[in-house]
């Protein structure tokens, strides 16, 4: 059974309890790595300037404590193999729906590869395939 590295674990622990519950369930059957939880002003500015987010501090969901967003990739990471990120997201969102139905998490989850949750994937203005956030 896969488990988080110490670094992934400590990043996930900066996140809202629903995101923790979700990814502790996901990691049981699908190996993955947590790349970002809470982002302070310096990290948010870097992410903004790098084009990884459209939001400046303190408007990002990563800027709350605990973080309302987490960036997670299937492990091992293959950046060019984007279909794998879509496959992983389907898995994550399926587990999120189940946990919500079971009352184990209280928020819905939005994925950065399909912000509006419609059935059409190619109409996104901005793809952030690592990004999962709480619907507040
Ligand atoms: Zn993110």
What integer is the average pLDDT? Answer: 96
Main sheet? 4 strands, antiparallel
Structural class: alpha+beta
Task: Name the shape in a single word.
Answer: globular
Listed once per kind, the bound small molecules are: zinc ion
Keywords:
136 residues, alpha+beta, 34% helix, binds zinc ion
How is this structure best described in words?
It contains 4 helices and 4 strands. The protein is an alpha+beta fold. It has a 4-stranded antiparallel sheet. The relative contact order is 0.18. The model has no long low-confidence stretch (mean pLDDT 96). The structure holds zinc ion (ZN). Zinc ion (ZN) binds at residues 36, 62, 69, 71, 128, 131.
Give the helices and strands, then pairings.
Elements: H1 6-12, H2 17-26, E1 32-36, H3 41-49, E2 69-74, H4 82-101, E3 108-111, E4 131-135
Antiparallel strand pairs: 1-2, 2-4, 3-4
Zinc ion binds next to strand 2.
In brief, what are we looking at here?
The protein is built from four helices and four strands. The chain has 136 residues and is an alpha+beta fold. The termini are far apart.
């Amino acid at each position: 059974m896969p488990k988080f590295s110490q670094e992934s674990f400590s990043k996930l622990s900066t996140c809202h309890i629903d995101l923790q519950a979700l990814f502790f369930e996901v990691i049981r059957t699908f190996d993955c790595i947590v790349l970002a939880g809470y982002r302070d002003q310096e990290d948010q500015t870097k992410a903004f300037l790098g084009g990884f987010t459209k939001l400046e501090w303190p408007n990002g969901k990563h800027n709350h404590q605990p973080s309302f967003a987490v960036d997670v990739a299937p492990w091992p990471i293959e950046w060019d193999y984007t279909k794998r990120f879509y496959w992983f997201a389907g898995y994550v969102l399926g587990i999120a729906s189940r946990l919500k139905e079971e009352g184990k998490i209280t928020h819905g989850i939005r994925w950065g590869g399909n912000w509006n949750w419609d059935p059409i994937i190619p109409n996104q203005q901005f793809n952030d395939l690592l990004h999962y956030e709480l619907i507040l």
